[in-house]
Structures are given as structure tokens and as C-alpha cells.
Amino acid sequence: MQALVVAAHGSHLNPDASAPTYAHADAIRETGAFDEVQEAFWKEEPHFREALRSLEAEEVYVVPLFISEGYFTERVIPRELRLEGWDPSLWDSDGTNAASVTLEAGDVGKTVHYCGPVGTHDAMTDVIVRRAERVTGDPQVGPEVGLAVVGHGTDRNENSAKAIEYHAERIRERERFEEVNALYMDESPEVDDVTAYFTSRDIVLVPLFIADGFHTQEDIPEDVGLTDDYREGWPIPADVDGHRLWYAGAVGTEELLAAVLLERAAAAGADVGDALESVQGDVTGTGV
């Protein structure tokens, strides 16, 4: 038997924070690739600490539904799962290329394949592009259009910005969009000044957040000038400083993310059969 644990942050304050986690877990559950699929959270139930105890399978694949390698993926989740011998250096990562490591959770007698977060997987580049396609309604979006990959950013974790810039650079190299910039909420260059970083009339903003919440539905829309009051909503596209801004929802709400979770588990050794095709196919190629 093999099991999958989708580990996410969750929230005591935002009831929608866990919605993407349940949606992606359900999509994978329906494929039958795993005998068990378990959601687990830091701020909600079921909690990380109980995740392994609730499973019958002795072989478990844990995939963090987080954007960056950092405090939660390197400290909190391994500690709460009680992974024996864990150390962040086992990932041998520069902040964007964690793969997986196999450890024991001896107190529950399980072998755990602990994977890097979905946010640093190469396939996330394609998910970002898919969000741009969806919000514009144009599967060929790119020429004469600027793309802003928007992250939280923080001085406390350099890997937070690394993940955003990593995908921005990968998209830039494809030369599909006129311009591609990584912008942040809490560090420079700031998303508040988005129009100052683009010459393109049309700009697509894709927030690299797992769930829609306070930042993506309140802060960013008001800060970039989409609306004066988030409660009144905003047009798509919105006219701001002579540009048209197309604002996508959080990247984590994109249904294609279920495939990225499966990619992580498969790379760690899980037998996923044809599950990738049934959740919109293998997304590790050169573009969606």
C-alpha cells in the first residue's frame, strides 16, 4: 500500500485557505493512484502531527503544498511528522531544487518519502502560464503582453524570493511574453508600483500564493490600483496608469496543480500509473 499526504498551511481566519488543498487531494483521490490520500495542515485539522497515525499504508509520500523552501518545509513539517534523521541539507538544495529524501517515522512504523514543495517544481512554471491564459481567455497570450509573477517576499527567508524569480526567469527564457518581472509585496521591487516596471500596455499579474485570501483578494487589488475598496470588486481587465491589468487568482487554485503534486510523488518513487493524464497530463514539458 502507498499513501499520499498533501501538507498545507491552512488558516484559523480564512475558511477558504484549505479549499485548494481539498480540491487537489480529491482530484488525486479520484484517480485511484494511492490507496490513501490524506490532507494535513498546520493551522487546521487534521494536523501535521496526526497525519501519519491516521494511515494504514506503511509507505507514505509527503508533498508540501507550499510555494517556497523555508521554515515550514525545512523545520515545521519534518518535526511534526517526527522524521528520524531529518536535516535540510539532505535535500542538497540551493533553495529551488529540493527533490525528495526517504526517512523513517519510527514511532508509527512508516517509511516516508519527503518531497520538496510544489512551488519550486519546474512544472509550476507551466501552471503560472496557464493562469495567464485563463484570466485573459487567450491560450496564445504572450506577444506584446507583460507578465508579473507576484510573490510575498520577506527579509526573514531568502528562499521566498528565490522561488518567484526562478519561475519568472524560466518564463522569460521562453520569450513568449514581451516582458516578465518578479514583483513582491514585502520587498523590492514592489507590486504596488507594477506599472512602473512595464512598457507593455497589457500586463497579467499572477500571484504565487497557494490560496486566495487576505493578500490576494484585499491587499494586492487595492495596492496596485485595481479598486479603492476590495469589497466592491474590480474589472478584468482594469485600466491603471494607462495600462490594462489582468489580475489572476492565486496560482494554487489552478486545477493543474494536482498534476504537480503527482509529479513530486512520482519523482520520489510513487507508482502513479496513468493518474497524470487524468488530472490534465504531464506538465513538465516546455509549455502548456
From TrEMBL:
State the signal peptide span.
none
Q: Which GO terms describe its biological process?
A: cobalamin biosynthetic process
GO-annotated molecular function: lyase activity; metal ion binding
| Statement: the UniProt record of this protein carries the keyword Metal-binding | yes
Entry keywords, A to Z: Cobalamin biosynthesis, Cobalt, Lyase, Metal-binding
- SUPFAM superfamilies membership: Chelatase
**Pfam families recorded for this chain?**
CbiX
Q: What is this protein called?
A: Sirohydrochlorin ferrochelatase
Organism of provenance: Natrarchaeobaculum sulfurireducens
